[in-house]
Fold these 4 entries.
Entry 1:
Amino acid sequence: MKALKSLRQLLEIRSLRADNLSRSLSEARADAENAREREAKASEALDIAASRAAGNPIVDELRKSGVISAAKLQDALMRQSVLRSHEADAGRSLAQRKDARCAAQERAEQAAADFSRAQKAVLRAEFSLEAAEKVDR
């Protein structure tokens, strides 16, 4: 009788653990999806920054007017520098987002493995309880 009570408690504990791990798994999967979305946005931002930085405002200005003043040259160089800086920042942001996505995916995979082990433990406890109840009868 005492063994049955212990097995029931074990089953309850393992079931609660499995429920908690199920919630953790759902959260980890949601985090991974959010990380994928943030990475996609960062990739898009990098593409935009790269396309903006690829243009050469100095050449564009010279084509328009044929002559460019020192002030306009300075301004064009500054804009180009800023655009290149934005491109570099976007590249770093994308790399960080990729790292975050990989970490979130690893956490989701670990949560899935933990949940699977917890489900198996619940099944083992249920089988043990059923076997003990049959013996007790």
Entry 2:
Amino acid sequence: MSEVWTGPVTYGQLSVLRSLETHGPGHRSVANLVSVWEVPFGVGVAQVMDAWLQLVAAHESLRTTYNLSGPMPVQKVHPHRPSRVPAVELAEDSFAAALRLGAEAAGEPIDIETALPWRAFVTTYQGDALHLVTVIHHVAADNGALRVLEEQLGLLLEGGTLGPVVQPLEMAQEQQEEPNTRSVRHWTETWGRIVPADRDPGDSGKRRRASLYSLDGLAAAQELSDRLKVSVQSVVLGVGALALSRLKGTRQMSFALMAANRLTPRWVPLVGSLNQFAPVTVTVDDEAHPMEYLRACYVQSMTAYMHGCYDVDALKESLREAGVPEKDPTAFAKHYNFLGDVDAEPAAGSALHTGIEWRPSTQRSGPNFHLAVATGKGILIGVGASHDYLGGNLPAVLAASIEAGLINMCKGSENSLADVSLDNLWRVL
């Protein structure tokens, strides 16, 4: 391709761009996703650089800028041109050092109107290639896309080649020709169920994250999933909502689930941003049976996920026509994200196993509560929150309560939610 191609954006791209309008120009770096991918032993720096540039050549989203001046964003796909991928010598041979490099690079916003939506580095130690570190803007890739890129990078480093790939412009054109009016209609009809306090919190306080890793917690979640024929992610959502309800003294709360929107095989390998928010309102009734409560959470979350692909501008207009003025359909205070596989198993001596690992955040806008979960040999439970919403060590308390709730609810001895203990006596806070 030797010329620029232009076209409409996908539903997922539009959702990211509208959400960034809420964050404002001073907080654009929240959209930068950091990845650290290990380089196989013996692979040279030049080979890693070349493999990354092959991925850039293959996937149009990595060569796309956006015209945001009009009422509707337009994506502009540029021809592939060689780009610089610097090598950075680290002071130590560690994943943590590479991650720090990525986090530092992610702190600077990426100008998606004029620049490529990524930054990349090859980390070295004593001259040997260790990792490919990338910072990619969320409009160009979501977590599903990052997994695709990691897999394809491994293929290229092993000497393989890439076949034909599907592109975001193809999806955008298909969505324009066959708009998903069913999902817009669903959200228009159910929008009134969202708890008003769980919309944009306007909270500019500092955020931080408390995380733990639990083998027993995952075993319990999987046992409940198998017993009830429901998903692990809905089990964790239900227990998380119960724990937050206890902590905040509220009976009902709305969460923005992150819909991956990769249910159709054609779009599974797409490198682009397909994620969108799918709100769910959970009611915690102390008299409800725990198993019936978890089943209800599953039905609600699956309904939300099935309607997770939609045009946020069309929804805004539909709500206006229905007499429900809506400034930003992407603004929610509480996020829930089931991330899939963990990036790596925690080291044996990590605080994640028996205590809590804390991580600061530069974010000062958007959601002031974020429950993020990933699985490996255990379950990684991360609770991010502002100091105003969960002060002191409450994010750690909540993460530990979720772990305890999974384990205790799995025992199946309680007849009501009120009887479920969330006391965690084995986790060092």
Entry 3:
Amino acid sequence: MILRNPLFYILILTLISCNSANNFYQGIVVDENEKPIQGVTIFEEERKNSSVATTDSTGYFRLARSPEWLGNLIFIKEGFKSDTIPSVGRQSGERIRYYFIENDTTIVRLKSAGADILIGLNVRHFPIMDSTNFDNFENSGEPDTQGFLKQIKFDPQCKDAMNFRLHYKIPFSENFAAIVVSYQCGENELFATLITVNKENRIVDKLDIAYDEVAESAFGKTSKIEKDKITVTSSNWMEEKPIFKDETYVLEENGKFTYKAQL
């Protein structure tokens, strides 16, 4: 196994000689769960008029090459980390093996872009009090500059959502990731949402755990997050006497939130 960098891992199935090489590159691209990835674009680096190939539903690609040229291949797919992978392996300057140009295909494991983002995200431990609001939301987490929420197809509460931030992870389960994010709806509303994401980078469920608005400063929402329950408290300051309402949820082992009227 060759480690080019943390983004790709190459599993070499067979070592071959240059004389037996095909006049094309071929391989199979899979994700971290060994599932084929369709629609990955592959082409040669620094070669003018390079052919371009795209993986099919089985993850297979075949890319024409010149018999006199063995280049580096570039793999690009939205939602995954792009990188350049050599077709020739060298050690101490000597050529020792070839990749992609044999009858038996080479397997490329492509790592999702979101994986690296989540690795560096801060972890908070139980119990957690979340009162994300306009005064403090920029003090934690980081802007979603790499478009992680777009990659996992996060659906915000409004069409004019902006200023997306990734705040922290919560260690609920090894079966899924639990992430708290925030975003604005226009200039006056701010939402903090707890999202559960499975190992295929798909959203399982989501729950709004904090809310703030500055138009009337009359409504809000905060939460207390514990391992066995999540208590969301809504506040209404429109009345002469403020109204507070608690809602309790349980996060199940499948990553779904279940509303509990009374625990």
Entry 4:
Amino acid sequence: MRNGIALSPVDELLCAVRGVPETIGVAALFAGEPPRVEALRARVAERWGGLPRLCRVLLRPREPAWLRPHRWLALERFDPAHQVVDAEDGPDGAGAADFTGLLGRLVARPLPDGLPPWRLLLVRRAGEGRFALVLTAHHALLDGRSLERLLSRLLDGGSGRGGRTAGGVRAVRALRDAHPDHAGPPVRPPLPLGPGRALPPPAGADPRPEAAWTEVDAGAVRAARRALPGLGATLNEVLLAAATGALRAVHGEPDRWPGAPRPLYGTFPVDLRAPGEEDALGNVVSVVRVPLPVDEDDPVARLAACRGLLAAHGPVRGADAATRLVDAAARLGPWALRLLAAWAGTPGHAPVACVAFRWPRGPWSLDGGPMERVIPLPPVQPPGTAGLALTDCGGVFTLCAVTHTLPGHARLLADAFGRELAAFARPVGAALSGPTR
């Protein structure tokens, strides 16, 4: 039984990050009365019970753990009574009334051992007249697209069409098929392996994981997408540009950050699912590491720079580069993946992680209660990092910031993001964005 099922290289890499729980999630907000937890468990058993991925338990490696891989133990079924929990019956108890605080606690702590590493939480009080479902999982089990597909499968309604990750970035294999001449240059581009700039370390306080979410004005998103001539900016380009400006506003002059004048690197994910594989569960994903235009003062110039970066790096080329690196480490053994994870967790490697995606076309509901909003929950990264996730659910935009820096930075970053978006709609002279502290 201890032999189990081997993890994929990406799954093993996501188990190798030390000091963080690697818990990701998504929260859906509904209007109306919440369902009974017994009814929700019955729905989960009916709609998710036949999914083998949800019946896996993560087995930790035996000693010497550094040299041995994790394994999956496949169960015949999962127990809905353990996996589907009422927030008021769990360890958060009455604290569930603080919905944002609850979300922060969920991503800042690991899921329990000995059970499939995912949970569906029913939050009866998520605001006036609202309830929420919060699906969390260990990142080694599920990626963000898997969470979306699972939650969509649980709900009523929808068009049956999947969403799209990263604001228009299509699957790498689909891009290769559509543009074989763009599948890669004659000589593979070098991997950007060098260290970069880091975010300023907290002064006088220990870094602490935090989460904050905010509503994002749809008109501001539309204005941002029209800010450049020609084709409208993608949601991913808007997110990267606005996140860069928000970091400047929160952390001060970029030329004073550790590692300057080296680039500040950020990452964004690329969904590797080809057409016909949209419902695949697991980690069918890679990442692209790009230098963010943190030294640009003009918000529109930052947006133009992000468009150029995405055009130059790929998703095809950038995602392939990361995949090659992970596969090469996996061929050496688990120890190499753990060294790779340690290197990737250093403050100057890529302290900013961004993800943008559209929810599948609705409307969606649960027992007649309409879904109003989707809140993405990126994982907590090592100290000195920030993650920003932006969702578009039927034209309702939501940003979530998860930071591992100074206490209070998650809220500052989320608020600054909204101001950066508004700057795209102002004349360039008035939109110059400098740090506020």
